[in-house]
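Complex 262.
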Amino acid sequence: MAHRIAVLSQKGGTGKTTTVRTLADAFRRGGLRVLVIDLDPQGNLSDYFDVPPDATPTIAEVLTGRATAADAIHDGIIPANLQLAEAELALAGKMGRELILRKVLRGADDDVDVVLLDCPPNLGLLTVNALVAATHALIACEAQYFALQGVEQALQVIELATDGLNPDLEFLGAVVTKADLRTVHSREAVVALREAHPGKVFDAVVRHSIAYAESSERGVSILDHRPGLGVDYLDLAGQIAAALGEAPAKRKLGTLAKAARA
Ligand SMILES: Nc1ncnc2c1ncn2[C@@H]1O[C@H](COP(=O)(O)OP(=O)(O)O)[C@@H](O)[C@H]1O
Ligand SMILES: [Mg+2]
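Predicted structure with magnesium ion bound:
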């Protein structure tokens, strides 16, 4: 079965979508077959992957039973658009509403190695569906002091999923994004996070840079746009591959990271 990683946080702007997009790219370069699923009605991930706004079916049709997940895969992504907001409302009134994504994904990812689920900027029903469908959870958080609280809240929702509907869900860890390590505040926030969650904050830290905005504007992966910065995500991907037991991918990503640093 594929490793399914839900990327979540309790708010927007923590780098979830950038993380999903760049990890997908990094894992593919590491030789893994990747499917990404956009679970945010804002559809940012779908934009990144150049899915036309009117492409159908999307995750909304899949969740409401009007299309199969297999039919909704467009070039490695199941996209989302504003219709997902409506679908979420429709789901809210259903029996077993937390289990729907898990059900509709059954069999859809048999021929991929990793599924990355890009959650919306809240800990509501869609995020819970992602956690129930996932094998692993990854929290994205900014290098800010208030991120500590956000991580706590995300962990509580992960615990709810583990205690109830998805006992096998594993917490992979938290990744710190947008870290301006020249500032004391950023550095202290990272230290505080590591102290609060020993062994559960990835060594790889994603540095803050305007290059991320440029890279999305130009539709060029940060791994190509600024390899010296993209190496943060190659490191993260390598550490995740190691945690997943994907040794060949870990080695390949290590080689790529070395080249990017050279
Ligand atoms: N490491 C980074 N440094 C600077 N800006 C970033 C970084 N990662 C993401 N961004 C920018 O921050 C904004 C929010 O990122 P995004 O990945 O969409 O977050 P989320 O999905 O959590 O809302 C985007 O404009 C993105 O380009
Ligand atoms: Mg997003």
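The first strand starts at residue 3 and ends at 8.
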